[in-house]
Write a structure and sequence with these properties.
Blueprint: H1 3-10, H2 19-43, H3 48-73, H4 91-109, H5 114-128, H6 133-150, E1 157-167, E2 171-181, E3 188-198, H7 208-222, H8 228-238, E4 242-256, H9 267-273, E5 280-296, E6 305-310, H10 317-322, E7 326-334, H11 335-340, E8 355-359, E9 365-367
Parallel strand pairs: 7-8
Antiparallel strand pairs: 1-2, 2-3, 3-4, 4-5, 5-6, 5-7, 8-9
Length: 368
């Protein structure tokens, strides 16, 4: 069995059977994103973190729509999905979409205008009495490429905002956000980092070179969802005037649904008590924060660097393995499914101490 066959059989690289299945899948994925947005917007009170999450979720929704159109206009290029550990499209499809976005302009220039394609289709139908397959394909390609240009997509790395919050006699205090689509887990990760900048340095928003260097470093260290402490430690070491204080990360996924191939403890519950449009979403929140700082040894040509010491509790196994100060988990599921389950018994018992958020068929969300 080839590697690709193995990935397909395990659910890591699945191509659905046709347009109908893809339509149902993208509709489910849209429902997932809108439900998360409802939670952060209504239950979380619309705070700054909620606004950051909502902004990146809007990018994901735009990406879902573009992938939907891509699949429809060229059924031969089935988009692969990770229906095992993720529930999202495979990272290969996100990477291909990034290439599409970069090449959209040149590809559009090589396709005939809409008006010409419509004339060709009419001529073909009058003369040959059948569907103008080639012209329809070109029309679909044009629509897909135009849509890419008009949408703000969620790609492999997604730069967010950089906001100056306050300044004191020693530091400027900033918050930066970014998101990535991790190629290992095939899940979106959203990051919010609070950091200080020495006031002796030029403000990031006023120094183009420092601004570019900052985001280049963030992309290099934070584009593939490395451990939180690893990300901030590397940023701290690479940028002398920058001192990361807190990094919070939210992993969206996996998504459990009728499409899932993984034998997850909650799948049977969902299939037994839920409907085809229902899903269970598992979210993981990680946070790492600085507990102290020390001056790194300098040298004859090198000034001392203030280095952050991050809190990693060795007595908490999950925090230690994830290199985080705190880790928490949320299970989002239909209200009627939550009510139908005895969380103190059976394989679902391992989830009883997690935070639960339930939603109804109208998309209204409530913490339990």
């Amino acid at each position: 069995m080839s590697t690709l066959d193995t990935l397909q059989s395990t659910g890591d690289f699945v191509r659905l059977k046709g347009a109908g299945e893809y339509q149902a899948y993208f509709t489910l994925l849209t429902r997932v994103c809108k439900t998360i947005m409802s939670w952060y917007g209504r239950i979380e009170g619309g705070d700054e973190e909620g606004k950051v999450v909502a902004g990146f979720l809007q990018k994901i929704l735009s990406t879902i729509e573009v992938l939907r159109v891509k699949q429809l206009h060229d059924a031969d290029r089935h988009i692969a999905l990770d229906l095992n550990e993720s529930g999202f499209p495979h990272s290969q499809g996100i990477g291909a979409l990034e290439v599409d976005a970069r090449t959209a302009g040149s590809r559009l220039a090589a396709i005939l205008p809409d008006s010409v394609l419509k004339e060709q289709m009419l001529d073909h139908m009058f003369i040959h009495k059948d569907e103008p397959v080639e012209s329809l394909k070109q029309m679909g390609e044009r629509r897909f490429l135009e849509l890419i240009g008009a949408r703000d997509l969620f790609l492999e790395f997604n730069q967010g905002d950089l906001v100056l919050q306050s300044t004191d006699e020693k530091y400027r205090h900033y918050v930066a956000s970014w998101a990535c689509f991790d190629f290992r887990s095939n899940c979106p990760y959203i990051h919010v980092m609070s950091f200080d900048q020495d006031v002796k340095a030029r403000a990031l928003e006023e120094d183009p070179e420092a601004y570019i260097q900052f985001w280049s470093t963030v992309k290099q260290e934070g584009a593939n969802a490395a451990a939180c402490a690893v990300i901030v430690t590397c940023i701290d070491a690479a940028l002398r005037p920058i001192h990361p204080k807190i990094l919070k990360r939210i992993c969206l996924g996996p998504i459990l649904s009728v499409f899932s191939r993984e034998k997850h403890p909650l799948i049977d519950i969902l299939l037994m008590a839920g409907g085809p449009e229902d899903f269970i979403l598992l979210l993981t929140n990680e946070i790492v924060f600085s507990k102290a700082e020390e001056l790194e040894a300098g040298g004859f040509f090198k000034a001392k660097k203030l280095r952050q010491i991050y809190s990693i509790p060795e007595t908490d196994r999950e925090c230690y393995l994830r290199k985080a100060s705190r880790v928490s988990h949320v299970v989002m599921l239909p209200h009627h499914v939550h009510q139908a389950v005895d969380w103190n018994d059976g394989p679902q018992k391992e989830f009883q101490n997690r935070s639960f958020v339930t939603y109804n068929r109208k998309g209204e969300v409530y913490p339990v």
